[in-house]
Amino acid sequence: ELEHVADDLRGALDDHLDEFRTKSMGQLGTIGENFVLAELESAFQQTGDHFSTIASTGHEADLRGAFLGSGGDKVEVLIEVKNYTTPIPSNQVTKFRSDIGNNRDRIKAAIFISLKTDILTISPQGKPLHFEEVDGIPTVYITQGEPSQRMFLVVWAMLRRELGGLDGTVPHADRITIAAAARLRDFVNEFNN
Prior knowledge:
By secondary structure, the chain is α/β, with parallel strands linked by helices. It is 42% helix and 20% strand. The protein has helices spanning 2-21, 25-44, 90-103, 151-162, 178-192, and strands at residues 50-53, 63-68, 74-82, 109-114, 129-134, 137-143. Strands 1-2-3-4-6-5 form a 6-stranded mixed β-sheet.
């Protein structure tokens, strides 16, 4: 009886794995976007942060995140999510930089997230995180080895703090502390220099 149940579970898992193996790049991208969106909402929505999918809009990234800054102004952040199984080509970084330029009047920062693979033109400069300024917009590139690392949560908290979210406080102090964000910033600065 128990072996029969285990065989049924193995069969179901194999079916699901086959389904993921045969997904198109667009389908894998949507899975990645939905994963990041759900994680950000779960961690930060109760603090008033808002996240939305904008992938179908031209000259935009995949997601947009927003929160109220210390002066009550709306702070918007573009978020690009890549769920590739191979290294991300440089044309995707070029497109993202163009999207930042097209939105620089309304955004305060941008995040490029690779859930599983290197970003060809970025990862050699700084991994797991690389910082640059694109058209005056602070931009963070995240190169994760696997989706479960969820480094984008700490990066969101860090950007939120640096951009004055909730008078500079970091939400979920029990999960993502100001000290952790400061250590991450120091680590990345040392790593990228």
